[in-house]
Design brief:
The complex is a heterodimer. Chain A contains 11 helices and 8 strands. Helices cover 37% and strands 10% of the residues of chain A. In chain A, strands 1-2-3-4-5-6-7-8 form an 8-stranded parallel beta sheet. The relative contact order of chain A is 0.14. In chain A, helix 4 runs parallel beside helix 5. Chain A has one domain: Alpha-Beta Barrel (TIM Barrel). The radius of gyration of chain A is 20 Å and the shape is globular. Chain B has one domain: Rieske Iron-sulfur Protein (3-layer Sandwich), CATH 2.102.10.10. In chain B, the strands form 2 sheets. Chain B has a 6-stranded antiparallel beta sheet with strand order 1-9-8-4-3-2. A 3-stranded antiparallel beta sheet of chain B has the order 5-6-7, with no helix packed on it. Chain B is globular. The termini of chain B are close together. The chains are: A alpha/beta, B mainly beta.
């Protein structure tokens, strides 16, 4: 008899090769960011703290299923929140799951939605440097995301220009619950800067804009909140399309991250239907909305849909476009998708490799 | 071929505790629920998480909105990732009992005396006649 840890690497039927587009790094404590934050803002933080557009400013806008929304096996033995230990991330995720490249998506403190715009901008600079120093330089498989203070467009553009030439950064990260819908023109300079540096805009669920998380008001249950991320993404994608962002920036590439997949074909079809009747309201759209989506929008896979039959899943991939799907795990969050088991369909080796690896390699221009 | 394995003495796994063992290359979780012992596979059938790292929970049910019944304290293991609840008595998940289930194994508590006299004597596990042992058939 022996007591053992599950050795996941040996349970694979085939060799895994994965690019994970959604890994959430965390800080052991906020002092981790101090070396990269001006003293003025360290003092500010200790005196005034973080102010987001909701009550209990350091909380999430809605309680999660588990603390930090984490897998309960992801807490480091040495303490600190899930996602704060690089060693555990390697041992639990990067190594056994064949992750060759992992994209960092820092969520906490949401610098983009800080009410104090100057503090938010300072925090984006500090957290961007923190990603490089604390993660990318320590682990060559990881890449950073440019956090931006999207409500202060000048500051956001300055940060994109500062990081745009740095190969450690592979995308610009915005959380979709912004003060206004992301298609509004106030945000366009950010998209212009993204195109200038050939960086995609990645919209990962979250944000604290103070608006109810569903179009009908605040939900009661976490399950409702969890569903509402798809509603938010639909609102944002519709806004980007109808405001004319894709028309104005034909080279802009957008990733909808963690918003689910099932709604995409129906939203595209509905937008096309409306456009065929109401086109004159938005004459700046010269093509059916679905074409902009098909050409300029990519989708991360987690949380993978689990329809009753595999055929439905394949049909969904066909409708969205196989080349638009970027595999993601959401490590270390509770709804983590395992690259071996998350896609519940019999895929050919080529299809599997395309979804788990090839699409992201092409999309992010990775070797 | 099925074989019986001594995995622990009863006092090595306290109520509410669990132990992960490897038998014939299979990972199996041994659980003590208020003095009753259960053995289930360690691999969640949904996406393969290590079930033994999950929390033991009771069964919360409701006959109508606004009321609830809480029973079977600690008899369900909740997957550490996505939260699927599995009944330790049957291995079946609560929401999809026929489709999504974890293997459960035959487990018996037997006195050391019986084991010493029986076929398991050759096991490397030292057996004392005074103790009670958890025996799993795999």
């Amino acid at each position: 008899m022996s007591t053992i840890e599950m050795d996941r690497s040996q349970s694979a039927k085939y060799k895994l090769r994965v690019i994970d587009c959604d890994i959430h790094p965390a800080m052991t404590s906020w002092t981790e960011v101090h070396p990269y934050l001006e003293k003025r803002w360290i003092d500010h933080l200790s005196v005034y703290g973080s102010h987001l557009r909701h009550a209990f400013s350091e909380a999430l806008s809605h309680p999660r299923m588990s603390p930090d929304a984490a897998r309960i096996d992801a807490y480091p033995d040495e303490g600190g929140p899930p996602g704060s230990s690089l060693e555990l991330m390697r041992k639990q995720h990067l190594d056994p799951n064949g992750v060759e490249v992992g994209m960092l998506i820092p969520l906490r403190w949401n610098p983009g939605s800080q009410r104090n715009l100057d503090f938010g901008a300072a925090l984006t600079r500090a957290m961007n440097t923190w990603q490089v120093e604390r993660w990318v330089k320590q682990e060559p498989r990881l890449r950073a995301s440019v956090l931006v203070a999207q409500e202060d467009t000048d500051a956001a553009v300055a940060e994109i220009d500062a990081r745009g030439g740095d190969p450690n950064f592979k995308q610009i990260l915005i959380l979709p619950r912004t003060d206004e819908l992301l298609g509004r023109r106030r945000y366009w300079p950010i998209y212009e800067a993204a195109v200038r540096h050939n960086l995609p805009i990645t919209i990962h669920v979250g944000g604290t804009n103070g608006h109810p998380s569903t179009g009908g008001g605040w939900p009661s249950y976490y399950m409702e909140e969890h569903h509402s991320v798809a509603q938010t993404m639909q609102a944002v994608l519709t806004s980007l399309v109808f405001e004319g962002v894709f028309e104005r920036f034909p080279k802009l590439r957008v990733v909808i991250m963690e918003g689910g997949l099932g709604w995409i074909p129906s939203l595209s079809a509905r937008m096309d239907k409306h456009w065929s009747r109401l086109r004159s309201e938005v004459p700046h759209l010269r093509r059916p909305p679905s074409e902009y989506v098909r050409e300029q929008v990519w989708f991360s896979t987690q949380p993978m849909e689990e329809p009753a039959s595999a055929a439905e899943l394949i049909d969904l991939f066909d409708r969205i476009g196989w080349d638009r799907l970027l595999f993601s795990t959401d490590y270390p969050h509770w709804d983590f998708d395992d690259p071996r088991y998350a896609i519940k369909a019999n895929l050919s080796e080529a299809q599997r490799d395309q979804l788990l690896y090839g699409n992201s390699r092409n999309f992010y221009g990775l070797g | 071929m099925m074989a019986r394995h001594i995995v622990a003495t009863v006092d090595e796994i306290a109520p509410g505790q669990r132990r992960l063992v490897s038998l014939n290359g299979r990972e199996i979780g041994i659980f003590n629920v208020d003095g009753e012992y259960f053995a289930v596979g360690n691999r969640c059938p949904h996406e393969g998480a290590s079930l033994c790292k999950g929390r033991l929970v009771g069964l919360v049910e409701s006959s109508e909105p606004g009321s609830y019944q809480y029973s079977r304290r600690g008899e369900l293991i909740r997957c550490p990732w996505h939260g699927w609840e599995f009944d330790l008595r049957t291995g079946k998940s609560w929401c999809e009992p026929d489709r999504t289930k974890v293997r459960s194994y035959e487990l018996k508590v037997e006195p050391g005396g019986a084991l010493v006299e029986g076929a398991l004597r050759a096991e490397t596990f030292p057996v004392s006649v005074e103790k009670q042992y958890i025996v799993v058939e795999v």
